[in-house]
C-alpha cells in the first residue's frame, strides 16, 4: 500500500505493481501540508527549508492488521480504517477515537496494530488507546510546557514508546512494565482534587535524551 496525505484528503494506492487508487478519505484540515520545488522544501510561509512536521498519518506494518490512522472530522479525534477488510470502491465508516480536546498533533500505530498513540498540538500529553475497544490504556506526560511533537515511535515488541519534540529533548516511556515510568511526587499524597488530578495520575518518561532544539527529528528503536 502507498498512502498519500494531502491537506484535507487522503489517498491509498496499491503498490508496487502499477499503483492503482483503492481508497479515498476526507480528513480534518491539516495545516502541515508542504510541497517540494526548486530550491528544496517550502513550508506554509513559502520559505525554503521551513518544513513543518509531516502530515498526520500512519500505516501499520502488520500483515494481519493493515490499519491506517489519520485525523478525524471532529477536533481531537482519530480515524482508524482496516484496509485488509475494507473493499476498494466502497464507503465504510472508519472507527473514531475521541483522543483529545484540542487538535491532534501526532499519531502512531504499534507494529502489531493493537495500539495507537497520539498527542495534541499542545504536546504535553501522549495518550495510548486500544484499536479494538477504543479504550484509553495509558496517559503519558511529556512535560508541562506546550511543544510540537515531531515523532512517536513504538519499539518492535511494543514495550516502549519514544517521543521527540521541538524542546530539544526525547523521551522514552515504558508501556508494559509501567512501574519503570516516573510519577509526580504528589502521587504519594493520594487525592489531590479535580484540578491536579490529571497531572498527578499521568506517568512521566523513564529516560530522556537531548537533541538539537527546534530541529525536526524522527525517532526509532532498533531490535
UniProtKB/TrEMBL annotation:
Keywords: Autophagy, Lipid-binding, Repeat, WD repeat. It is found in: Preautophagosomal structure. GO terms for cellular component: phagophore assembly site. GO terms for molecular function: lipid binding. SUPFAM superfamilies: WD40 repeat-like. InterPro entries: PROPPIN, WD40/YVTN_repeat-like_dom_sf, WD40_repeat_dom_sf, WD40_rpt. One of its GO terms (biological process) is autophagy. Coiled coil: none annotated. It comes from the Eukaryota. Belongs to the WD repeat PROPPIN family. This is WIPI4 protein. It comes from Zosterops hypoxanthus. The lineage of its organism: Eukaryota, Metazoa, Chordata, Craniata, Vertebrata.
Amino acid at each position: 500500500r502507498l498512502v498519500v496525505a494531502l491537506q484535507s484528503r487522503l489517498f491509498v494506492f496499491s503498490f508496487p505493481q502499477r499503483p492503482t487508487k483503492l481508497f479515498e478519505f476526507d480528513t480534518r484540515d491539516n495545516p502541515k501540508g508542504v510541497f517540494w520545488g526548486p530550491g528544496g522544501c517550502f513550508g506554509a510561509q513559502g520559505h525554503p527549508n521551513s518544513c513543518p512536521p509531516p502530515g498526520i498519518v500512519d500505516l501499520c506494518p502488520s500483515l494481519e492488521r493493515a490499519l491506517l490512522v489519520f485525523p478525524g472530522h471532529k477536533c481531537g479525534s482519530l480515524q482508524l480504517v482496516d484496509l485488509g477488510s475494507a473493499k476498494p470502491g466502497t464507503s465504510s465508516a472508519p472507527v473514531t477515537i475521541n483522543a483529545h480536546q484540542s487538535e491532534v498533533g501526532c499519531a502512531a500505530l504499534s507494529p502489531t496494530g493493537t495500539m495507537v498513540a497520539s498527542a495534541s498540538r499542545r504536546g504535553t500529553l501522549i495518550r495510548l488507546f486500544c484499536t479494538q475497544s477504543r479504550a484509553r490504556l495509558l496517559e503519558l506526560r511529556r512535560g508541562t510546557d506546550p511543544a510540537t511533537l515531531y515523532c512517536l515511535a513504538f519499539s518492535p515488541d511494543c514495550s516502549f514508546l519514544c517521543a521527540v519534540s521541538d524542546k530539544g529533548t526525547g523521551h522514552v516511556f515504558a508501556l508494559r512494565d509501567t512501574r519503570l515510568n516516573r510519577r509526580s511526587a504528589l502521587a504519594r499524597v493520594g487525592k489531590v482534587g479535580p484540578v491536579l488530578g490529571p497531572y498527578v495520575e499521568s506517568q512521566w518518561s523513564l529516560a530522556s535524551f537531548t537533541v538539537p532544539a527546534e530541529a525536526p527529528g524522527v525517532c526509532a528503536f532498533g531490535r
